[in-house]
């Protein structure tokens, strides 16, 4: 049985355990399947939209991932779907702590969202689309805005809700100020 060393883990492996990262790779397969799988997992943890070959930068396709791991292919598909949805002006995240769900809200006028809210399909609670906060029951958007402007704590909370996203791991507010569009 012929063997060679993986250029990542340096382990001696049977030649049959070396595969091309993608079906379109132009490089020689010098990476064992285990290292490719660990690489894909690390990329998906970071929520990167594109996964590329180590050497030739060929983009992985879903069919390439399915050959390595169905679970990774499913996660990658989910991330691509979420990336597409987040770019839609009708997409909103539920503002309720612990929910973590988002959805497309149909029939919006992006130029005037005052008074517009949606009921989350997961937690069934309402979110104000204009302020991106749990619905301010009993207050119009204008009244809520005045209330925010009159309190320093409310101003801070408003800024946090408007300018941050929840971390997908711990749900704490994080500010996106660079990098890719996937947090």
Comma- or semicolon-separated keywords:
183 residues, alpha+beta, Herpes Virus-1, two-stranded antiparallel sheet, 9 strands, elongated
What would your notes on this structure say?
The protein has helices spanning 33-45, 62-68, 70-86, 141-149, 152-163; strands at residues 3-5, 12-14, 91-93, 102-104, 117-119, 126-128, 133-134, 164-166, 173-175. With 183 residues, it is of the alpha+beta class. The protein has two domains: 3-83, Herpes Virus-1, CATH 3.30.40.10; 88-175, no CATH class. The strands form four sheets. It has a three-stranded antiparallel β-sheet with strand order 5-6-7. A two-stranded antiparallel ribbon has the order 1-2. Strands 3-4 form a two-stranded antiparallel sheet. The longest helix has 17 residues, at 70-86. The N and C termini lie far apart (45 Å).
Shape: elongated
Mean pLDDT: 85
Q: Helical percent range?
A: 25-40%
**Main structural class:** alpha+beta
Tally of individual helices? 5
Extract low-pLDDT stretches: none
> Separation of termini?
45 Å
Largest sheet: 3 strands, antiparallel
Q: How would you spell out the order of helices and strands?
A: EEHHHEEEEEHHEE
As for the number of domains, it is 2
Give me the side-by-side strand order of the main sheet.
Answer: 5-6-7
- Beta-strand portion reads 5-15%
């Amino acid at each position: 049985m012929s063997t060679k060393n993986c250029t990542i883990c340096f382990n001696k492996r049977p030649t049959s355990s070396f595969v091309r990262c993608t079906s379109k790779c132009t490089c020689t397969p010098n990476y064992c399947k285990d290292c490719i799988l660990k690489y894909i997992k690390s990329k998906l943890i970071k929520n990167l939209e594109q996964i590329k070959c180590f050497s030739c930068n060929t983009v992985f396709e879903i069919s390439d991932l399915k050959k390595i791991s169905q679970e990774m292919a499913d996660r990658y598909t989910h991330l691509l779907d979420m990336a597409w949805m987040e770019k839609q002006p009708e997409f909103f995240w539920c503002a309720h702590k612990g929910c973590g769900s988002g959805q497309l809200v149909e029939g919006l006028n992006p130029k005037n969202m005052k008074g517009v809210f949606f009921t989350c399909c997961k937690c069934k609670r309402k979110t104000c689309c204009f302020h991106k906060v749990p619905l301010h029951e009993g207050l119009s958007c204008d009244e809520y805005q005045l209330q925010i402007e009159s309190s320093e704590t409310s101003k801070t909370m408003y800024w946090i809700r408007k300018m941050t996203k929840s971390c997908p791991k711990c749900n704490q507010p994080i500010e996106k100020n660079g990098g890719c569009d996937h947090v």
